[in-house]
Amino acid sequence: MLNSMFGRVVLMLALLIIVWIQSQLWLGEGSIGHNRELQGEIDARKAENAVLAERNRILMAEVRDLKQGLEAVEERARLDLGMVKNGETFVRVTHSRPDVSSAQPAGGAPR
Predict the structure, then answer these.
(1) What is this structure's pTM?
(2) What sign does the dihedral 37-40-42-45 (CA atoms) show?
(3) In the chain, at which end, N or C, are there fewer CB atoms within 10 A of the end residue's CB?
(4) CB of 25 within 8 A of CB of 32?
């Protein structure tokens, strides 16, 4: 069969089809490399979604606390707005720096 012209044409067509299929498998869209790249993107999106889901869970818990109890509202008012209840006394503690002008000179007697 390979001795005839028809046999050679069929063999060449079969080889061309095999080469084309292999090129699509290794290089084209949907190829092994392309699928690995897409899987990497999927993994990155899943990690990002996990972070966002955790953030949403925390925000939903905060919303639930704000809707159900006054303690969360009171804490927000105290921390964010600096509010104080009636009858409470607000005390601010500051750390004072040593006054440079009243410091004694090193190695000398007091004046």
Answers:
(1) 0.44
(2) negative
(3) C
(4) yes
